[in-house]
Structures are given as structure tokens and as C-alpha cells.
């Protein structure tokens, strides 16, 4: 028998079986999450399955966030918020309120997820947790509601597509450019119900906040999960971020003779900054192919690129400058801690002086809910993860996806600009741990 992939090993451990790709297993859940949109339906299922007075399988490992319609943009949203608060309080679960942050940022920052965990979230970008070596995957509200009662869920063990990258990225090229290229190459559905495993010297050199970007957007090529094998850098990041000691002995790595569905090999030195054209993330091209495209709005944020390091890249480019005429910029940090760091390190002032609008932490503009939706004919360049028609507002708007560096450079000129023409910085894992005054 061939060796096993990381995904096969993890699901074998969680199911207590010798799991191979294609097998169906009942696996023990380590962490479960829902937010203000998906939570109320999950609560209904939980009550139907377990009864009104049942207990959660693990309240200390169950997390609810209010992050999508936050603050509430209508009565229904406000009622959903109250439903989340009431359910969490009744069952003793962890609950994060308006402004605390996007679920995927909060779970990592607060130390709920560790390497080797099986994490389910009622949100498609729950693949994010693979950036620290967990098996993170999105599930429907009904599945989540059942798992909240039982602590288990069935899975088909996925085949694994390996993305192996070597060499040094050019200045102005980041993890966002890598993942857009991957999606462009295999297609929007090329990794459907498969695990994307990211390996190679380039991946090993990436700071953890960039590894999270790769895992976050695995779903944009259909991935069931997207995993970066955990290493000492992962442990150091989590220990610094959470204050908890991280034991990598429970983590998993693929065997040298593991059976991959396919292997895609890249030379990082040849990768140019990428931009995904409307209206699908798979429409990835070199920035030079769309350079000069005029834009109306720039959006910096989301669970993909709303971390402090991402926003600081934009701030460094805009320091002492102003937005191009007739261009607006909306900045939405991924969490309250990112917002606080922006305040204490001057990033907030730099961006507002340049003309940007900074919102509370949350998801608002990303899915076109509020806090900066697009109107008819608007063209937006965003650090988001999706650009389907109507994703950020009007069905007649257009969204291009890019890295924070590309968005920052483009803000200076009001048109899509190659960030290699602008001085940019790559930050390591310690920047978020700056000592605040």
C-alpha cells in the first residue's frame, strides 16, 4: 500500500480507522463554528435533533461570531444577532459580538484551532484553518446543527492535489498571487471535494498570515480543504499569538510515497502579480494584462487579506500620499485586534490621511451587505476572495481580485497598477506582535 497524505492521516486519526481517499468515515470534531447568518438555522436543527434542553457536544470548543451583518443593517439581522447571543449564553458557548472580528480571524487569533484539529464551520471559507495545519472545512447549517449535538460528522476522505512551489517570490508578489495562479490553472471547480496541499521551499518560507491566504481560497477551486503542513514556524506563530504552547507531535505530514491525485509544480521566481478579472476567481492573469484599467473603488479586507500585515502593506504604499482623484477606498480589518494595532502603530492615521474609509471589523462589503456596496457600473479592485456578478453590490458592477500590494499601488493612480513599480515590504510573523504603547 502507498503511504498516506496529510488529509488521509488526519481523518484516519479522527475516525479511528485506516482511512484512504474515497472512503466514508464518521469523524470526531474538534472545533465547530457558525456566525450570524448560518447560526440560527443550525440552532433549529440542533433543537430538532437533540431537544430544547440538550447540551452542546463541547461548549468550550464551540464558537459563534456576529460578523456578517455587523453592525445590524436591518431588523432581521438584529434578530439574528439576538438569536446567536441567546443560544450561546444558554449553552455556554464562546460568542464574539459585533466588531470582534471575522470568524476565521478570531478562531486563529484566540487559539481555538491548533495543528492536527478537525474543524467545521458553517461558512465556506472555513478552509482557512489549514494554514496552521488543521483540516478546516465548510459545512451546511443542517450538518453543523447535527454535529453540535453529536460531536461527529461523516466525511468522504478526499483525494489530494499537491501544489509544490520552489524559489523566491519577486518583490511585490505575495501568497494572494500564488493562490490566484493556482485557481487560474486548475479552474474554479478543478479541486472539487479534494484537499489542496501546499508544499515546497516557497511555502515553507511564507509567514503564517500568508499561508492562511492559500488555505482560505482553496474553496475558490472547489477544495474540501487546503492545508499547509505545520512546522516550527507554525508553532512559534501560535505561541506568540495565543500564549499557548503548541505540541507538533499531534500534527500530520504526508508520507514521501503518498498517493496524490495530481502534482502541480511552480517556479516562484517566474510568478508575476496576478489579477482575477470579472466575474470568476479563475480568470487570473498577469497584472500587465489588465494594467491601466480604471477603477472606482478599492476594497482592503476580508478573511483573506484583512490581517494587520496586509493592511500595513497598503498603508506603507500610501504613506504621505493621497488616493487618486475620484477613487474611494474602503478598509475593513479582519478583527478588533487588527483594528487596535492599526490605531496604535499609525496605520489608521496613514490610511485616513490618504482618504480611506475605515470600518469596524467584519464582512460587510465582501458579500455586498453594507459598509461600501457597489453601484451600477462601478469597478472595484479588492483583496477579497470572490468576484461573481453582484458579489459586492450591483449586478452591473465589476470586481477584480488582487493582493494588498496591487490594491495599494493602484490606489495611487486610480487604475490597476503593477506593484513591482512601487516599493513594497514583506512582513514576517512577528509584526502583529509589536509591543503596543
UniProtKB/TrEMBL annotation:
**What does the record give as the reaction this protein catalyses?**
(2R,3S)-3-isopropylmalate = (2S)-2-isopropylmalate
User: Pfam families in the record, alphabetically?
Assistant: Aconitase (PF00330)
Q: Which GO terms describe its biological process?
A: L-leucine biosynthetic process
Q: Which molecular function terms from Gene Ontology are attached?
A: 3-isopropylmalate dehydratase activity; 4 iron, 4 sulfur cluster binding; metal ion binding
Which residue intervals define the domain Aconitase/3-isopropylmalate dehydratase large subunit alpha/beta/alpha in the entry?
24-289, 290-414
The protein's UniProt keywords, in alphabetical order, are: 4Fe-4S, Amino-acid biosynthesis, Branched-chain amino acid biosynthesis, Iron, Iron-sulfur, Leucine biosynthesis, Lyase, Metal-binding
User: Which residues take part in binding [4Fe-4S] cluster?
Assistant: 303, 363, 366
Q: What are its E.C. numbers?
A: 4.2.1.33
Keyword Magnesium on entry: no
Q: How is the cofactor bound?
A: Binds 1 [4Fe-4S] cluster per subunit.
Pathway where it operates: Amino-acid biosynthesis; L-leucine biosynthesis; L-leucine from 3-methyl-2-oxobutanoate: step 2/4
Q: Which cofactor does it need?
A: [4Fe-4S] cluster
- How is the subunit organization of this protein annotated in UniProt? Heterodimer of LeuC and LeuD.
- Give the protein's biological function: Catalyzes the isomerization between 2-isopropylmalate and 3-isopropylmalate, via the formation of 2-isopropylmaleate.
Similarity annotation: Belongs to the aconitase/IPM isomerase family. LeuC type 2 subfamily.
This protein is called 3-isopropylmalate dehydratase large subunit
Specify the species.
Answer: Haloferax marinisediminis
Amino acid at each position: 500500500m502507498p503511504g498516506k497524505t496529510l488529509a488521509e492521516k488526519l481523518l484516519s486519526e479522527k475516525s479511528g480507522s485506516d482511512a484512504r481517499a474515497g472512503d466514508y468515515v464518521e469523524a470526531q470534531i474538534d472545533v465547530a463554528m457558525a456566525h450570524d447568518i448560518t447560526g440560527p438555522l443550525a440552532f433549529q436543527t440542533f433543537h430538532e435533533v437533540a431537544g430544547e434542553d440538550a447540551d452542546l457536544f463541547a461548549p468550550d470548543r464551540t464558537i459563534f461570531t456576529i460578523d456578517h451583518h455587523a453592525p445590524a443593517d436591518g431588523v432581521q439581522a438584529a434578530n439574528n444577532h439576538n438569536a446567536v447571543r441567546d443560544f450561546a449564553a444558554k449553552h455556554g458557548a464562546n460568542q464574539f459580538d459585533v466588531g470582534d472580528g471575522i470568524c476565521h480571524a478570531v478562531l486563529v487569533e484566540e487559539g481555538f484551532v491548533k495543528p492536527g484539529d478537525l474543524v467545521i464551520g458553517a461558512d465556506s471559507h472555513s478552509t482557512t484553518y489549514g494554514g496552521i495545519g488543521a483540516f478546516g472545512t465548510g459545512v451546511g447549517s443542517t450538518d453543523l446543527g447535527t454535529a453540535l449535538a453529536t460531536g461527529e460528522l461523516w466525511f468522504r476522505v478526499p483525494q489530494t492535489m499537491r501544489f509544490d512551489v520552489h524559489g523566491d517570490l519577486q518583490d511585490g508578489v505575495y501568497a494572494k498571487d500564488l493562490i490566484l495562479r493556482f485557481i487560474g490553472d486548475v479552474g474554479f471547480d478543478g479541486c472539487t471535494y479534494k484537499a489542496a496541499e501546499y508544499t515546497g521551499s516557497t511555502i515553507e518560507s511564507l509567514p503564517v498570515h500568508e499561508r492562511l491566504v492559500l488555505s482560505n481560497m482553496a474553496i475558490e477551486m472547489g477544495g474540501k480543504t487546503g492545508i499547509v503542513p505545520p512546522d516550527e514556524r507554525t508553532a512559534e506563530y501560535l505561541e506568540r499569538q495565543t500564549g499557548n504552547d503548541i505540541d507538533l507531535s499531534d500534527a500530520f505530514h504526508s508520507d514521501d510515497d503518498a498517493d496524490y491525485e495530481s502534482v502541480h509544480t511552480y517556479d516562484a521566481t517566474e510568478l508575476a502579480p496576478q489579477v482575477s478579472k470579472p466575474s470568476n476567481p479563475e480568470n487570473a492573469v498577469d497584472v500587465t494584462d489588465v494594467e491601466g484599467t480604471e477603477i472606482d473603488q478599492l476594497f482592503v479586507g476580508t478573511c483573506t487579506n484583512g490581517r494587520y500585515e496586509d493592511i500595513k502593506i497598503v498603508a506603507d504604499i500610501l504613506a504621505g500620499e493621497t488616493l487618486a482623484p475620484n477613487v474611494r477606498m474602503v478598509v475593513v480589518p479582519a478583527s478588533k485586534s487588527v483594528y487596535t494595532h492599526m490605531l496604535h502603530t499609525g496605520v489608521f492615521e496613514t490610511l485616513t490621511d490618504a482618504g480611506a474609509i475605515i470600518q469596524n471589523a467584519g464582512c460587510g462589503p465582501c458579500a455586498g451587505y453594507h459598509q461600501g456596496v457597489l453601484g451600477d457600473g462601478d469597478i472595484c479592485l479588492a483583496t477579497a476572495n470572490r468576484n461573481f456578478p453582484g458579489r459586492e453590490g450591483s449586478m452591473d458592477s465589476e470586481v477584480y481580485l488582487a493582493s494588498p500590494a496591487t490594491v495599494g499601488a493602484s490606489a495611487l493612480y486610480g487604475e490597476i497598477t503593477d506593484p513591482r513599480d512601487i516599493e513594497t515590504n514583506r512582513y514576517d510573523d512577528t509584526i502583529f506582535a509589536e509591543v503596543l504603547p
